[in-house]
Design goal:
Blueprint: E1 31-39, E2 45-53, E3 62-73, H1 80-86, E4 88-89, E5 93-97, H2 101-114, E6 126-129, H3 144-153, E7 171-172, E8 175-176, E9 178-185, E10 192-200, H4 214-217, E11 234-242, H5 248-256, H6 258-265, E12 273-287, H7 303-324, E13 328-329, E14 335-336, H8 341-353
Parallel strand pairs: 5-6, 11-12
Antiparallel strand pairs: 1-2, 2-5, 3-4, 3-12, 7-8, 9-10, 10-11, 13-14
Helix pairs in contact: 2-3, 5-7, 6-7
Length: 354
């Protein structure tokens, strides 16, 4: 059975319907691009950069409200103090590996200057997870040109998943992980919530798919595990986007709900894990130079539906990362096996018959 997204395999999680692409790009204006680096000389490299534009080029002068939640902080996401202070993002967001945060951050700053962004200073958001089991990440293979390539490649529509961009060398629940995305449309109001994850966390025995204990059914005796110590080491970055009109504090509340989707799959926020979630809303326009911005806010009682959408989109995004990622061999001949789609489907069917 070929690698495919979860729903293509006939497995649907959650209650709410997905958007057209079942991706973060279902939120109008959001664009995603990747730069993937796979080479064996002079060093073994399995890494890259993933870029998310909350809007198009106008993001430099038309910011979005945003908020962040750190479920477990053994990780890095730059620019957080300024988001906590003013609740705005005025630049594209990037995700890469742990050793490359600095160079990617500097590349976003350089791009802002080249684009003529009017701000006096730039504190962009760049997040990471660690890919050093497969990739010789200590060689710092990512350059500014890779970041520029991901930013230039960003587009709307379907999003490449699995072994791409920042997710190229990542591992999830002891299977091959990486980039995944999904979306949900809220019935009342028709607002969309999209999620994009870089999944690099988790123990095999904790993996669940729609409540089924898949990780126990497909254990290391069935599909070998790399099981690099410490077992819980790893991280997940979740980026949530919505077109619902949210203020920064509401974005913080939405970001927290990624925790629920992560927990449904089997994430527990282990001590060695960097689980950092960011949510932004494209509905309000905060333009540079305007002395007063007129904004809208979703009613508090309407937030519950968005919370459900965020949890479901996060859950499916992680599972899409698992079902689309392919087995990869990296440095020192180390191999991380993909979650076999035929075994996944068989496990789910067996559970449904019980």
């Amino acid at each position: 059975m070929k690698r495919a997204r979860l729903r293509t395999l006939g497995i649907a999680t959650g209650r709410l319907p997905p958007g057209r692409w079942n991706a973060i790009t279902d939120v109008a204006g959001v664009r995603v691009g990747h730069a993937t680096i796979i080479r064996d000389a002079p060093h073994v490299v399995r890494t890259g950069v993933t870029a998310i534009w909350p809007r198009g080029d106008e993001i430099w002068t038309d910011a979005v409200f945003a908020g962040v939640h750190s479920f477990n902080g053994n990780g890095e996401m730059t620019g957080l103090p300024w988001i906590a202070e003013q609740g705005l993002i005025g630049a594209p967001i990037c995700i890469t590996n742990t050793f490359s945060v600095g160079v990617v951050r500097d590349a976003v700053c350089t791009l802002a200057v080249q684009a003529g962004a009017p701000q006096d200073f730039h504190l962009p958001v760049v997040a990471e997870t660690y890919d050093g089991w497969l990739s010789e990440s200590e060689t710092c293979p990512v350059t500014a040109e890779h970041a520029f390539a991901a930013l230039r490649a960003a587009g709307t529509g379907p999003v490449a998943e699995g072994n791409v961009g920042g997710g190229t060398g990542m591992i999830c629940h002891e299977f091959k992980g990486g980039i995944g995305t999904a979306s949900r449309v809220v019935e009342a109001g028709g607002h969309t919530v999209g999620a994009l994850v870089q999944a690099n966390y988790g123990a095999r025995e904790l993996l669940r798919v729609d409540g089924v204990k898949v990780g126990r059914a497909i254990g290391p005796d069935v599909v070998p595990s790399h099981r690099h110590p410490p077992r819980e080491a790893g991280s997940i970055i979740v980026i949530l986007a919505t077109d619902a009109p949210l203020l920064p504090i509401q974005c913080v509340r939405l970001a927290r709900r990624a925790t629920t989707g992560l927990a449904w799959v089997g994430g527990i926020g282990a001590n060695g894990s960097g689980d950092i979630f960011l949510a932004f809303s494209t509905a309000n326009h905060i333009r540079v130079g305007e002395p007063v911005s007129t904004v809208r806010m979703l009613a508090p009682d309407a937030m519950t539906a968005l919370f459900e959408a965020a949890a479901e989109a996060t859950e499916e995004a992680i599972l899409n990362a698992l079902t689309t990622a392919e087995t990869m061999t990296g440095q020192q001949g180390r191999t991380v096996h993909a979650l076999p789609p035929d075994l996944l489907v068989a496990t789910m069917l067996a559970k449904s018959k019980n």
